[in-house]
Write a structure and sequence with these properties.
single chain, about 525 residues, alpha+beta, 10-stranded antiparallel sheet, 9-stranded antiparallel sheet, 19 strands, globular
Length: about 525
Amino acid sequence: MHQPLSMSSLELSVGGLGSPVSALGPSLDLDPFSGGSSSSSFHLPASVSEMERPMMAEMATRAMDELIRLAQAGEHLWAKAAGAREVLNVDTYDSVFAKPGSSAFRGPDVHVEGSRGSCLVLTGAVGLVDVFMDSSKWTEFFPTIVSTARTVDVLVNGMAGRSESLVLMYEELHVMTPVVPTRELCFLRYCRQIEQGLWAIADVSVDLQSDTRYGAPPPRARRLPSGCLIADMSNGYSKVTWVEHVETEDKVPINMLYRDLVASGAAFGAHRWLAALQRACERHACLVTPPLGRDIAVAGVTAEGRRSMMRLSQRMVGSFCASLSASQLHRWTTLSGPGAGSDDAAGVRVMVHRSTDPGQPSGVVLSAATSIWLPVSCERVFAFVRDENTRSQWDVLSHGNPVQEVSRIPNGSHPGNSISLLRGLNASQNSMLILQESCADTTGSLVVYAPIDLPAANVVMSGEDPSAIPLLPSGFTIVPDGRGSAGSVVTVAFQILVSSLPSSRLNAESVATVNSLISTTVEQIKAALNCGSSH
């Protein structure tokens, strides 16, 4: 068990409030200018030349035809898997859609993930099409899967309602942990209205020269014809049929903690996208129309205040998710320490970046995270870390003092889907609140929180624009271990403002402090859930 920490130097710097972490001690070789800044402009593929446009339009048309066949195909192409999921029969696919790149040409290290699913979502088809075709909305809707996305080029501006639009997009997909590299994809996205109330969105990767300016190329991923059929229902819902079909070639084996989850296709499969889509649509519906009979547990908050709090929390969650990606621009350094080489822990990883983004405190930010396996269910871990009554059992910065929920905004049908304002009951913490959002779907859950001072909370509650309020979120992601057991894989992550001077260097003391903070948090969670100490 770790010794209790003296947190005086860190007291309110988690979230960038109060004094930064003490800047004493020798400089550590983690350069805030070498990468990791969320505002860095990563290298995008060049726009499409006039000569390439007809070829790409033809590729997109073929992909659309294949998507529609895959979405409507029967059992000869799709087999039932665990959890009522449908997985692609690759041999049958290769024989039906014979072409270069099929099994005869596929390298021995190439892994194929093909999955299909369908569900009802509480959004109209036209609204969904707008999300799919706008890279900013795409990232905002799927922060737990899409760490970043950009529209590289608009090849065809579609008619009213986006039908026949064709864009070249770049995206990075992640599992929200530093230990699994992002999947980087450059693909065409083609939208077509098939008939009144029925839309199709088809994706297919384009093979562009890999850019190696950041060192070794990332694990190769190629999206074969994939996408969605979106059918308007009469009651404001849409039925979405999702086909995900990707070839990957991982140069480095996936970390043991996540290997089963990724290998099974569950990490990036159709059912994960659909669960995230259902959750996002439900959250959006709550933003527009509050659930009946589940009002905020505080008097005097207007509808505008409620919406402002939801917008601030959405930005907090998006920022937290993006901070956990492991892309070419987000380079993590592994610290030696407990669990670094074991099968049930990944060691503590750190990254430093210079924050200049509006909505974040300005200066040098230290991110630290670790992923661990726990022999308890995702539901139990989620219930424990989101409950304000048990927060003092793991939150080192609360010093064992209880916290009280000041207000709550439900934003989904699952009882754990909500936004809360929490207040420490210690007299010295009266000027500080904690903004927390917890959300769960069928594929996992997360709990994200950030300190917010009282004046900022009043700005939000009064319904004013919250975009200037600086947040530096920390939190947890919780996913099943993919082994069919009751175990879960939990990532614990903190972000700390090390210095408000953007030119500062990181120092060893700051890293040691955050390393102890994470290690102690993990040990306290294990103790509270009766999981024993780490190996």
